[in-house]
Amino acid sequence: MRNKKILIKNIGKLVSGDINKPILKADAILIENGKIKEIGYSNEFNIKEAIEIDANGLVVCPGFIDPHVHPPLEDYSPQNRMVGPMEEGCMWGTTTFISEGEQGPGLPRFYEWDPQGVKATAILAKKIFDKYRPGGAKVHGGALVLAKGLTKNDFKEMADAGVWLIGEIGGGGLADVEEVLPMIDWAREYGFFISVHYGPRLIPGATTMTTEDVIRINPNKVAHANGGTTAAPLDQTMELLEKTKCGIEIVSYGNPRMAYEIIEKIKKRNELHRVVFGSDGFTGQGYLPNAIHRAIITISSMNKIPAEKAIAMATGNTARLYNLNRGIIEPGREADLIAIDAPPGSSGEDALKAIELGDTFGVAMVMVDGRIVAFRGRDTRPVRKWIKINGKEASVSDINEYLFDPPRNYRIFQLIFESS
User: Fold this and answer.
1) Coil, helix or strand for 220?
2) Of all helices (H) and strands (E), which one includes residue 39?
3) Could you report how far apart the first and last alpha carbons of the chain are, in Å?
4) Which architecture, in CATH terms, is 5-62+328-417?
5) Which of 72, 239, 284, 299 is deepest in the core (most CB within 10 A)?
6) Do 100 and 167 touch, CB atoms closer than 8 A?
7) pLDDT at 75
8) Average pLDDT, the chain
9) Taking phi first (over 0 means left), then psi (-120 to 50 degrees means alpha), and beta for anything else, what does residue 80 get?
């Protein structure tokens, strides 16, 4: 169905993902060839041979982007013995995952690092995840873990192979700033995105990275600024915010008090555009299929941030930081979209009001490149209303659909998509 025209109409509120203009005055989106073609009002469109998705008054927003995962090459995480965590995360609405360094039985994060091993791992992971779409999600894999002995030519070779991410410096691998700085220069020359672990070391092979270290490296993003899980001292973290202009990542399982203080500081500085939300999955503590949900809800409700701006931190802010053509609802962008609703019993009138009250919202549709990949996760919160596809309600009616295989067993797929 990717090459067909799709019209999403009757949207209750359209959240753009752009933190500077978070709500769009429109209630319909036209999608063609997997990208957003046009935005407007339902009564303005009269598209023949288009699949019609009736949003039924639900909130529609961009799919969430998780900029901090450690995907195992073999899709198996030894720390929690779970297979398919990205697939489940996608069914909760996270449609893009970005690596901060792969984890496996040995290289590159936990054992002695060598330049040949980390280079081979980055190139292999890039090639694997270019083709691998867990649950339909997009995965940017192949984040290089730095190692002593890497040369400028190594960075060129990796860039030629498509590798463009430096996994969080200090989260594993070489972290001595004096040795790292020449590599950072090479990485920047070849267009790499640079991330730095911040705060105390907590796993074998990690390094405590100080505010001074981060300032010297001057990365694109500070990973888990609120602790992963232990936060740096408050005064040092505040100094970091003042003396850098880079992206600031909040992880949902990190120090909640520090997350609150960071957002308050950045809000006063009028710099909410710097904030992004990550999970630090798929470690035992970071594996939460609703990690981005939790970050949105916590920051919106506790820091009194409008829900649509909190959603922008999980979508458009991240897309702009990483230069991705998604995360914002505008023509030409990839049609990665989700429909969300307040759960039954919430005092919030819709998903946005529920978020601001601290209630966990439900998911009624997950779309990647204009293709519906799920209606809900295996245990996402229920919704009060469902979308309709060509007039047929896409609702759950069987406990097996609810628990075990929601992306594929819905009758609606058989009735609509397989015949389209």
Assistant:
1) coil
2) strand 35-40
3) 7
4) Roll (2.30)
5) 299
6) yes
7) 64
8) 90
9) alpha
What band does 161 get if pLDDT is binned at 50, 70 and 90? very high
Alpha-carbon separation of residue 358 from 292, 335, 340 (angstroms): 14, 28, 15
Domain locations in the chain? 5-62+328-417, 64-289
C-beta separation of 221 from 246 below 8 A: yes
Task: Give the Cα separation of 11 and 26 in Å (integer).
Answer: 8
What CA dihedral angle connects 192, 238, 96 and 110, to 10 degrees?
70
CB atoms within 10 A of CB 46: 7
Residue closest to 131 by CA, chosen among 141, 117, 144: 141
Q: Which CATH superfamily is domain 64-289 in?
A: Metal-dependent hydrolases (3.20.20.140)
- Cα 236 to Cα 46, 136, 257, 266, 381: the distances in Å are 57, 40, 15, 15, 38
The yes-or-no verdict on residue 409 having pLDDT over 50 is: no
For 272-307, b/e burial (b = at least 16 CB within 10 A) is: bbbbbbbbbbbbebbbbbbbbbbbbbbbbbebebeb
Q: Which residue has the tokens 């007039």?
A: 391
In this structure, what are the phi and psi dihedrals at residue 76, rounded to the nearest 5 degrees? -145, 120
At 229 the three-state DSSP class reads coil
Structure-token pair, residue 256: 């909640």
Residue 56 in tokens: 């039924």
Matching fold, domains 5-62+328-417 and 64-289:
no
* pLDDT per residue as tens digits for the range 317-331: 999 999 999 999 999
- Residues near 18 by Cβ (< 8 Å), separated by ≥ 6? 312, 316, 328, 330
Q: Which pair of structure tokens corresponds to residue 16?
A: 């753009």
Over residues 273-298, the pLDDT tens digits come to 999 999 998 876 777 889 999 999 99
